[in-house]
Amino acid sequence: MSDPILRLEDVYTNIAQxxxxxxxxxxxxxxxxxxxxxxxxxGKTTTLRTIIGHWRARQGRILLDGEDITKLPTPAIARMGxxxxxxxxxxxADLTVEENMVLAAVSGPIDSARLDWVxxxxxxxxxxxxxxxxxxxxxxxxxxxxxRAMVEERRLYLIDEPTKGLAPAIISTMARxxxxxxxxxxxxxxxxxxFAVARALGDSANVMDDGRVTWSxxxxxxxxDAGLQERLMGLSLEAH
Amino acid sequence: MSAAPEHxxxxxxxxxxxxxxxxMPLLLVPALVVLGFLAIPxxxxxxxxxxxxxxxxxxxFIMASGLTLVFGLMDVINFxxxxxxxxxxxxxxxxxxxxxxxxEAPSLVLNLTAVLVAVIGAMAATGLMGWAxxxxxxxxxxxxxxxxxxxxxxxxxxxxxxxxxxWGPEEIYFTRPExxxxxxxxxxxxxxxxxxxxxxxxxxxxxxxxxxxxxTKIGLIVRAGVQNxxxxxxxxxxxxxxxxxxxxxxxxxxxxxxxxxxxxQEVVSAHMGNQAMILIFIVVIIGGLGSVEGCFxxxxxxxxxxxxxxxxxxxxxxxxxxxxxxxxxxWRPMGMIPVVKAK
Lengths: 240, 343
Fold this sequence. Notes:
The complex is a heterodimer of chains A (240) and B (343).
Chain A: E1 6-15, E2 18-28, E3 33-37, H1 44-52, E4 57-64, E5 67-68, H2 74-79, E6 82-85, H3 97-104, H4 112-121, H5 123-127, H6 138-150, E7 156-160, H7 168-183, E8 188-191, H8 195-201, E9 204-209, E10 212-218, H9 219-223, H10 226-233
Chain B: H1 16-20, H2 24-39, H3 43-74, H4 81-98, H5 100-104, H6 108-138, H7 145-167, E1 172-173, E2 183-186, E3 189-192, H8 193-215, H9 217-234, H10 239-265, E4 267-268, H11 272-287, H12 292-312, H13 317-331
Antiparallel strand pairs in B: 1-4, 2-3
Helix pairs in contact in B: 2-12, 3-8, 3-9, 3-10, 3-11, 3-12, 4-6, 4-7, 4-10, 4-11, 6-10, 8-9, 9-10, 11-12, 11-13, 12-13
């Protein structure tokens, strides 16, 4: 775990009067997929939103490649190469798929080789390239949301529940695309409730409870120990 | 998991109804024109009224377009928008009065140059004022609608009073440049030259706005920002700068509308912006908050309606636009082309 791309040091975040994050310590190794797991409401999404700067950490530090980004505005963090796929997908419904992608390519025109790669991962995006994104199905919207992050090479990808509410066929497309991203050596922090996907993709795992990271280790270790899962997350996710 | 069938959707042909649906509001304008044709006994009167209605609509559009973007993008209800209309008119007319020799000369080139200088001066003044207005008055109240209404209304009153301080309490009367006076006769109908100019300018502004919004990256950012500002920032765009830019552009457009409105009426008063606000709000609401296209169609409908009804039934004219608003909101409660989803 030396030289992590991202490090959270004792991060506290409040939303209104609620104390959501209560001292999160987290390391995201370079060139690997790091899972952020835990029951609903333990602060996984808030952790991602605090990293990208949508919520402000009240206390603690967030370091990207050793640089303190805790107080930076969201656009500046994004420009440092952080791609964000929010839980609600954040699709611009009235814009076409193409326009969504053009916007996501912040540094200039879309690289055509990169776009071909995105199309090979998510063929429906090519089919609906000129259609309004609002008319896409839920799974296609999720593809677009991830594709927007993938359209440029980012230093770090923050992806929040990419398989939420999707049919198995689409989950496998999604998992394959994320595997593709991983094989390219991307650094990913992934929130995922689907344990099969988490086990297939994750290199390391962090389990959160009550606004803190309560366990960190190798994903394989967590996946192979039903008792540990039961203890950390209250139930065996294997059953789901 | 891997055994699941591949997800491979195909495009289906849209039904005629689906394809026509989004264009329905656009059809309202010709429908209203045809309705006017049927209701007005004399063809020449109808033609005159139609041109006059379109001209009025274009001017309202120019004044209102900035407001709809400001509301859509920044969720700011700016009751002070009318102040930019008034200031634009006063600055523009003052410049024209200073260039009296150019305005009175019977030369189209000199006249248009004078008007162009006045327009640039007015837009520069209102753009600058928009920048200051955003910084001083609007910035502290982002996210609070009630405070926005109160504080921007206050800003409007302050600006109105400042106009009285600077230009005096009297209305200023003037005459339009020589070559923009009078009318041309077409098919037996007298068409005022200035109204034709207003139609052309309005179309040009609309085309330019559409081009910027549809074909440029900054336009994409604005349209995306109207829908999901947070995500636009997460992609790396400084929405705050775009906000200020839109506010300045919207204010400058209101200034342009003010000059044109002033030239149309040949009189300017400190309250003209405030009076125009009623029509502007109607147009922005029936168009759909945040939609430039909706605003354009709404403005044309309001302009035509006002002119037709004033000719047919003068007493009803006062409520005709409110009636139009009620009818359209019953048909489409979010406005004709809703962009901003209910928050």
